[in-house]
Amino acid sequence: MNFSSIGNLHQSVKIAQMKELVDSQSSPRYPGTYDNDPMNITNRTDWKKIVPVPDKVKQDLINAVKETMEQNGGMRHANEEKDPIHRIKQTYLNSLPKSERLSASWTLTEIYRNEAQRLVDFVRVKDPSWDWGKPVKTEILEEVYKSPNVDIKV
Fold first, then answer.
1. Per-residue pLDDT averaged across 71-98, rounded?
2. Under a CB-based contact definition with an 8 Å cutoff, are residues 49 and 103 in contact?
3. In degrees, to the nearest 5, what angle opens at C-alpha 83 toward C-alphas 105 and 113?
């Protein structure tokens, strides 16, 4: 037996194993899986834009924000199935083609955030002691929504 050739063989195997490990760590984990998927947002920001949304969907979202404020003090339900905002968004987004869903989702989130912030600002002016999760006085919510100037635009 030639011990020098066995040592060389062992070293060659170790080098091959290290090369394989380096290659496996440097290549994408799932190459090509999401390349053509319009829902893939990796390294993209073009989907962050406001797009037209039906007035009924906007109004449903605003009503859901109001309901959340009335029932939970502005806190959304932890269970998505019971969260009216999640249901409205999912129902609408599932009615759209995949290529339009990202921007529509961004738009719906902006509508929700703007309305929620508008309500929070109004409630805090009327009741400075109010905080998230605390009940909101009914008369304050009635006052904010009795105004004909409620804007449903983003």
1. 82
2. yes
3. 45
Provide the residue range defining the domain that includes 5.
1-31
If one compares 123 and 25, the residue with the highest pLDDT of the two is: 123
Nearest-angstrom CA–CA distance, 86 and 67 = 13
Cβ within 8 Å of residue 108, ≥6 positions away: 53, 57, 61, 88, 89, 92, 93
Q: Does residue 50 sit within a domain?
A: no
pLDDT tens-place string over residues 106-123: 899 999 999 889 888 988
Please state, rounded to an integer, the average pLDDT across all residues of the chain. Answer: 78
Domain presence at residue 37: no
Whether residues 16 and 92 share a domain: the answer is no
- In this structure, what are the phi and psi dihedrals at residue 135, rounded to the nearest 5 degrees? -60, 145
